[in-house]
Design goal:
- This protein is α/β, with parallel strands linked by helices and 525 residues long.
- It is built from 15 helices and 23 strands.
- It has 2 domains: 251 residues, Aldehyde Dehydrogenase, Chain A, domain 1; 183 residues, Aldehyde Dehydrogenase, Chain A, domain 2.
- It is globular and about 75 Å long.
Length: 525
């Protein structure tokens, strides 16, 4: 049975059970056995991470950045092995998805985190010389607990993804709870990370890895006062249960939970390029088995001939599509239940069949439809996320209905609008966008939402229930780092007692906001 990583050592787990990964394409168990850790492993992981806090906080930024760069190099050097294991455990295509898109994104965001560390951009130093106040963002002084999701074995992995990179960049040890759908991938990544930790001279206990724990013990861990913050990506039910435990202990939790990512098609857009939009919709909804957090789960289609043509074209594509391999049997079960709940709330099936399809965890793409009146009557139930290749079309009669629908929406990661290039939809666009803007983290024009660019300007977050806090992003440096930092202010503190970044002298030429002006100059004593 594979070992857990605790206190910088691979050690035998105090396991309460064991499991193996499952190939979702065949339904067969594959690879080595992994431990299901109990209370003893969890306690050892928390103790080791807590004991590493002071050493990691005192680690020079350059060594943190060197680790992140070395880890990125190691991931790229092990590309073939990582892709092979991740493909077997998730069923996601080896190429282009894993090898050409997700793995480079993962190493790239590690390097972006390294750049943010070197520039001190995430610390946001502010100095008010008249009031003798100085402030910056600093480490939490406690470990960060990261729960990895099932749909991104690299880019959101608990030991390699944006949450991990952000927590380490802020000099916080990480307790990583890997997703049991890809334990072998997580084990390989953690081994590369440990090598880079040693190479860069970080405390060996900067990272602890547990593969699986009992859900009730997970709730206990989330409420452990020794934890400084939590990063989570997963279902709303699991996220809210963990958040309740964390809230009781005053632990901030940054949870990405659910989103239907509404897309509004305005009449002029369909008149101009309806066929092109239909093709893009089908590709976006079915890409990766529809298992993206930004999958277009709800599309608002205007009444009329152009809307009818769009629906007919899309329905034909969905009806002809082959079953998609899902990440696991659990994903398949939840998809069936969610899609059926939409039907029970009044949606009709235009194409596809709800239910398991073929060997392993497979489901055909499903297209559902509902009219605006039914949507208004059952708005909450019809906004349930169906995680997979399923989308709900909502037919609206006029712009007043479109605006009203936008105002009924829950919080989402994204909201998209397609409009005419000749300006014919501009007035409608303004009204719908105004209603939609406060309900989504990222507003998108004339593009399908699938995909998230790793950029400092990205907001991969949004109002509840898409996330647990609308003011933060889980993607993009340095913004993502701020989730795992605390704002510290110094009032009248003598210069030689201040952190180096807040002292008068600024030999590293850090950009600081001094008396309202950004500058890298030193301050005259």
């Amino acid at each position: 049975m594979e070992s857990v990583l605790i206190n910088g050592e691979w050690r035998a787990a105090a396991a309460i059970g064991r499991f193996r990964a499952i190939d979702p394409a065949s339904g067969e168990e594959i690879g080595a056995e992994f431990p299901r850790s109990g209370a003893e492993d969890i306690e050892q992981a928390v103790v080791a991470a807590t004991q590493a806090v002071d050493a990691l906080m005192a680690t020079p930024p350059e060594r943190i950045a060197a680790f992140l760069d070395a880890y990125a190099d190691g991931i790229e050097a092990a590309k073939d092995a990582l892709v092979a294991v991740a493909h077997a455990e998730t069923g996601l295509p080896a190429s282009p998805r894993l090898a050409d898109v997700e793995l480079p994104r993962t190493s790239g965001q590690l390097r972006q985190a390294a750049q943010a560390v070197r520039s001190h951009a995430w610390t946001h130093p502010v100095i008010d010389t008249r009031a003798r106040l100085r402030a910056h963002f600093a480490p939490l002084g406690k470990p960060v607990l990261v729960f990895g999701p099932n749909n991104f074995p690299f880019a959101f992995n608990a030991v390699a993804g944006s949450d991990f990179a952000s927590a380490i960049a802020a000099r916080n040890p990480v307790i990583a709870k890997a997703h049991p759908s890809h334990p072998g991938t997580s084990r390989l990544l953690a081994a590369i990370a440990l090598d880079a930790i040693v190479q860069a001279g970080l405390p060996r206990a900067a990272l602890q890895l547990l593969y699986e724990i009992d859900p009730m013990q997970g709730l206990t861990l989330a409420g452990d006062a020794r934890i400084g913050a939590i990063g989570f990506t997963g279902s709303r039910a699991a996220g809210m249960a963990l958040k309740a435990s964390a809230d009781a202990a005053g632990i901030p939790m940054y949870a990405e939970m659910s989103s239907v990512n509404p897309v509004f098609l305005l009449p002029g857009a369909l008149r101009e390029r309806g066929s092109e939009i239909a093709d893009g919709f089908f590709q976006s909804c079915t890409m990766g088995g529809g298992q993206f957090c930004t999958n277009p789960g709800m599309v608002l289609v205007p009444a009329g001939a152009h809307g009818d043509a769009f629906v007919a074209q899309v329905a034909e594509k969905f009806a002809a599509a082959a079953p998609a391999v899902l990440l696991s049997a659990g994903v398949q079960r939840h998809l069936v239940a969610s899609a059926q709940s939409l039907v029970d709330a009044g949606a009709s099936v235009l194409a596809g069949t709800i239910g398991a399809a073929g060997v392993g965890a497979r489901h055909v793409p499903v297209l559902l439809s509902v009219d605006a009146r039914t949507f208004f009557a059952h708005a909450a139930a019809l906004q349930r996320e169906a995680f997979g290749p399923v989308s709900l079309l909502v037919r609206y009669d006029n712009i007043e209905d479109a605006v009203a629908i936008a105002r009924t929406l829950e919080g989402n990661l994204t909201g998209s609008l397609w409009s005419a290039g000749d300006g014919g939809d501009d007035a409608a666009y303004a009204r719908v966008a105004h209603a939609l803007r406060p309900r989504v983290g990222r507003l998108i024009d004339d593009k399908w939402p699938t995909g998230v660019a790793v950029s400092p300007a990205m907001q991969h977050g949004g109002p509840y229930p898409s996330t647990s806090h609308p003011g933060f992003t889980s993607v993009g440096m340095p913004g993502a780092i701020l989730r795992f930092a605390q704002l510290q202010s110094y009032d009248g503190v003598r210069d030689d007692r201040l952190p180096h970044a807040l002292r008068n002298a600024n030999p590293d030429r850090i950009q600081r906001c001094v008396d309202g002006r950004w500058t890298d100059a030193s301050i005259d004593a």
